[in-house]
Design a protein that fits this description.
The chain is mainly alpha-helical. The protein is built from eight helices and no strands. The protein has one domain.
Amino acid sequence: MTRSIQTLSEAERRLVAEWAATCAEHVLGLFETARPGDERPRAAIARTRAFAQGEVDTASEIRRRFAGGSAAQDAGSPAAAAAAKAAGQAAAVCHMGAHALGAAAYAIEAVRLSALDRPDAAEQEIKWQMRQMSDEVRAALRSLPPLGEDRSGPLGPGLLASGQIGRNICALQASLAGEWPL
């Protein structure tokens, strides 16, 4: 069985998991304002950080990655739902590193939806996310295939490859390649 290049090594997944958790946590307030007391996204981010720090193993997190997955359905607003999805994508990094871009893309979407009066909100969020990356995280994310080129993972056809989320991932990948102005 051939491993997808979207998986990344375990060491790389642990690195990008911390960055994905940071991106998701940056917009967590949008969910928590809409759903006070609902700890599911915060718990997903905590599990992501525990994975990043080596406190939990890949197998146990793969089994738990969908815990609290319905938080987005209960969110009450599109921005809050996107924030919950960012946390869910971050938790899925333990399984496949490409989900880190999904976490970041949903965080960008949460910001965009919460600031429709600010046309540059998404661009500012991308810039903020890029500043949160270490050189090692940047290198790991650069090793992922461009959106749509590899069918064997989250960057293949599907939810992350379409609509605004797909456009957000394309902008992130262009930023990683130095092709998008920062």
